[in-house]
Amino acid sequence: MNERALRRTLSDLPLGGVRYDEQTGSTNDAALAWAAEGVPDLTLVVADEQTAGRGRGGRSWITPFGTALAFSLVLHPRPVERDIIPLYSALGALAVASALGEKYGLMPEIKWPNDVLVHGRKLCGILAETVWLGERAESVVLGIGLNVRPEAVPAAEALDFPATSLEEVTGLSVDRLSLLHDILAALLTWRPRLGTEEFIQAWEGRLAFRGKQVQVWAKDQPLRAGQVEGLDRKGGLRLRSPQGKLFTVHFGEIRLRPVV
């Protein structure tokens, strides 16, 4: 990957700007700094190597050189999007899942709220970080990390959830630039439908662990358990407790695992 090839591949997409780094600490940090300079909507930061990337809850996301997709997109929420900021993570996950399904015939699932799984293993993670101006969301940096080559997958002892790579599950040699283009194109297709019934239904149709018993951890909250029932209209996760009571999880540092 190089900047010239990146710009050529993405030239048909209405991006606000493109920045390529061979190596960076975190594409989200680079994009947040760029956003502070007032860059346009849909400004993109891509790196071939990420040495200090992070996921939700402060977990690290390291990207060895040339093995993955690591990119962040600066989005300026439109007026209709300002009340549904939490759905940006789902926008990234749905874009990835849609692109993988169309390009490779896979059936990815979305582990609520922001991970993309294939065959029950994590392939991609999304981290959305919001820049606030008073009470208004000035920008959202949507970071996406997708394991392309087997070398991108950390050692098993370093994982908190089983992981895989796209080349492992497809048996194919993957063109990272072409894949990046398809994910961004899918994101542009889904963005106008953010928060609509169609969007929620598409997300719910890919929901991982549907009908299964899971345990849910949230920061400073007691452990909760229930059966995954689906999503509510705002993208909250609906669960049924062992006593048969429905409840919804909306926010927080949430991790889901099937009960063993």
Record keyword descriptors for this entry.
single chain; about 260 residues; alpha+beta; BirA Bifunctional Protein, domain 2; SH3 type barrels; 8-stranded mixed beta sheet; 5-stranded antiparallel beta sheet; 6 helices; 13 strands; about 35% strand; globular
Quick structural overview:
By secondary structure, the protein is α+β, with helices and mostly antiparallel strands.
SSE inventory with pairings:
Blueprint: H1 3-9, E1 17-24, H2 27-35, E2 43-54, E3 60-63, E4 68-75, H3 88-104, E5 109-111, E6 115-118, E7 121-133, E8 136-147, H4 166-170, H5 176-190, H6 197-205, E9 213-217, E10 224-231, E11 237-240, E12 246-249, E13 255-258
How would you sum up this structure, described in words?
- The chain is of the alpha+beta class.
- It has two domains: 3-205, BirA Bifunctional Protein, domain 2 (2-Layer Sandwich); 213-258, Roll (SH3 type barrels), CATH 2.30.30.100.
- Helix content is 24%, strand content 34%.
- The strands form two sheets. Strands 1, 2, 3, 4, 5, 6, 7 and 8 form an eight-stranded mixed β-sheet that branches.
- Helix 3 (88-104) packs across helix 5.
- The chain is globular.
- The termini are far apart.
Globally, the shape reads globular
Given helix and strand content, the structural type is alpha+beta
Helix content: 10-25%
Order of helices and strands: HEHEEEHEEEEHHHEEEEE
Report the CATH topology name of the largest domain.
BirA Bifunctional Protein, domain 2
Largest sheet: 8 strands, mixed
Give the count of helical stretches: 6
Number of domains: 2
| Fourth-tier CATH superfamily name of the largest domain | Bira Bifunctional Protein, Domain 2
Could you tell me the number of beta strands? Answer: 13
- If you average the pLDDT, what whole number results? 91
CATH class category name of the largest domain: Alpha Beta
How much of the sequence lies in strands comes to 25-35%
